[in-house]
Amino acid sequence: MDLSSFVKVLLRHKYTLILIPLATVIITFFLVRNQPDSYLSNAQIATGIVDQSLKTLSASSDMLQDAQVSQEFGNLMAIMRSKKVIDQVSYQLMIHDLTSNKPFRKPSKTLESMNASARAHAVERFTTFYKNRQTLSLFDPDQRGLHDLLGSMKYDDQSLLQKLTIYRDGNSDFIFVQFEAEDPNLSAKVVNDLCREFIAYYSLLVKQNQIKAVNFYADLLKAKEDTLNRRLERLKDYKIRNKVLSLSEQAKSLYAQLSDFETRRQQASKDAIAYKAAIDDIDKQFDPSDRRYVESSMVRLNQRLIATRAQLESANNDYIESSFKPEYKQRVDSLTNVMSSQIGRASDKYITNPMVAKQNLIEQKLTMQIQYDLAKSSSRSIERELARLNVKLTELVPHEAVVQADESAIQIAQDEYMDILNKYNQKQLESTFSVLLRQIESAMPGAAQPSKKMLLVIISGVVSFIFCLLVLFVLFYLDNTIKTPRELANATKIPVLGFLFKLSGASFDLGHIWSGKDNTEEHRKFKNLMQSIRFEIDTEMNGSKILLVNSLAQDEGKTFLALNLAYAYSQVNKKVLLIDGDFTRPDVTKAVNPQYYLEDFLLRNATDYELNANGKITTMGNRGGDISLLQIDSESDIRNKLNALKAVFDIIIIESPALNSLNKAKEWIVASDKVVTVLKAGQTLKEHKNLHINYLKGLNGQFIGWVLNEVAKGQVPADQQG
């Protein structure tokens, strides 16, 4: 995108850029000159969200996060803008204007058309809706009429919201409310009524939610309490039914008894083994005759000892089964003493072999025998008691599982109950406190605001100017027409030999222009441009003499270029032959009225028209008709005849048909040395034209370039305009 080209477009439309914004400014001035002054009223509401000094026992002591604070303020301001709150203000304003002798606004046509009964009905309905905090239903014809009445007075919610501003001041705890109106009392009333209705509505919502929360937690608390009581009752019934006092204490006692009995069993077993080994060792020290003597002598003593031992064993079993109660221990000790005395009396008798002094060993054996028997008896009793205790412990296991499950359920129910109880107490406490919202600054009738009339006028002019720029830019961006030589060269990648302006005036005489009779500034620049094109073509010809001038389509200006090119060559003393090769549209023939004709020259049937170069410019026309060059003569003869003309003329300029005539144009290209093509500015290179351009590129140096015709004077720099 060429910025300089866009600037040129703006310069061409400079009057549009001036007149449209100027007209917009004038229209805006007349529209806003009677605009009434505006008054702004402000109020301030403290929320208690971030101000800790306003916190009460009902509020949490935890600091809120920034996102939570922003959300809280957003919710409050959304409620203030809600239709339910704004409608309350609308009702009050409408009731005031219907009942007051000094309404805030001039009555609308709808209000003026209402009679007294209609006004009374409207006041009654608005009052009812205000007290009940109801919104108007547009499905009801009567309520729709009330809504239209509000809209006619600009008291409806949409109209009020357009002039209402609600915002939080930075990170403070305050919400600011502003309203702009044409009446200072109206602006103050709207702000104060809005703050009051908002606080009342929000307090009502909070209280209703708190009551709902208290009732909900009360019902939930009762349900949790009933659940806890049922589970406690079920556990109690189970313990009574299964005679379970305290499983943990019972299990602890059984484990202690088992541990004690296990220790005593190990001790009794150890004692039995030790006493048995000692008895066997004593028996080894007696020979068989001594043993028979001792055993025969101690029959009666042993019988008494056996009886006492049986009593001792029975008492010992009772002592073990009673879990070693002290009263049973006394009996065991008593029988032990009796047995000891019996053993002592037996040792006093001379029942041993007089020949052997083994009295002391016999006493030890008797004592050890008794201890051995007691140890064996104790082991059996302890084993039976261990088995009984294990059975009792096994019986406790299923009770333990049931009781633990019930106790776990009771603990969960108790935790839930306590949690709900805490929440219930918290909600009940919160319900006793008032809402923290309060209006700390009331709105007062404000002073008139600076007039925005001039600002609106300036903005209208700036906006219209920017809009014009935008439209011109879009048109420029979407415009892909060829307007300058540079654009043509960039689009086709083919050199541009020059360009021509469109001469002003409906008609002009080229002979007068080139002879100097019409020596205007425009004509001077035109001739300079034409001489520049002639020089570029002469350079590209490089000694060749036959130049073909054509175009992509009709009415591009090839006839105009051919004629002026002939004049330009004649100005530098060249002998010029101009041939009109377009049989379909012989424009050169019509413009010049030539002496010679192409058909006669090619057929050579009229020797009276033999060409000579008496003047600077010789013209050869044609008689027209729907024919082509090769229909008149063969290609070789045409080349020979044109080569013969090279000896007579310095330059031969041929205007051929446009390339869209297909073979008629291409036949002339075969007969020429160089080709220059004229393109009219202001057109796009569409697909069918690109086909002709590709054909020209394929001529292998025969095509020397473009000449851009009818270029707008503002499209090229001044230094390139001749």
TrEMBL record:
<keyword id="KW-0812">Transmembrane</keyword>
<dbReference type="Pfam" id="PF02706">
    <property type="entry name" value="Wzz"/>
</dbReference>
<feature type="transmembrane region" description="Helical">
    <location>
        <begin position="454"/>
        <end position="478"/>
    </location>
</feature>
<feature type="domain" description="Polysaccharide chain length determinant N-terminal">
    <location>
        <begin position="1"/>
        <end position="93"/>
    </location>
</feature>
<dbReference type="InterPro" id="IPR027417">
    <property type="entry name" value="P-loop_NTPase"/>
</dbReference>
<keyword id="KW-0472">Membrane</keyword>
<dbReference type="InterPro" id="IPR050445">
    <property type="entry name" value="Bact_polysacc_biosynth/exp"/>
</dbReference>
<dbReference type="InterPro" id="IPR003856">
    <property type="entry name" value="LPS_length_determ_N"/>
</dbReference>
<keyword id="KW-1133">Transmembrane helix</keyword>
<feature type="transmembrane region" description="Helical">
    <location>
        <begin position="15"/>
        <end position="32"/>
    </location>
</feature>
<keyword id="KW-1003">Cell membrane</keyword>
<protein>
    <submittedName>
        <fullName>Succinoglycan biosynthesis transport protein ExoP</fullName>
    </submittedName>
</protein>
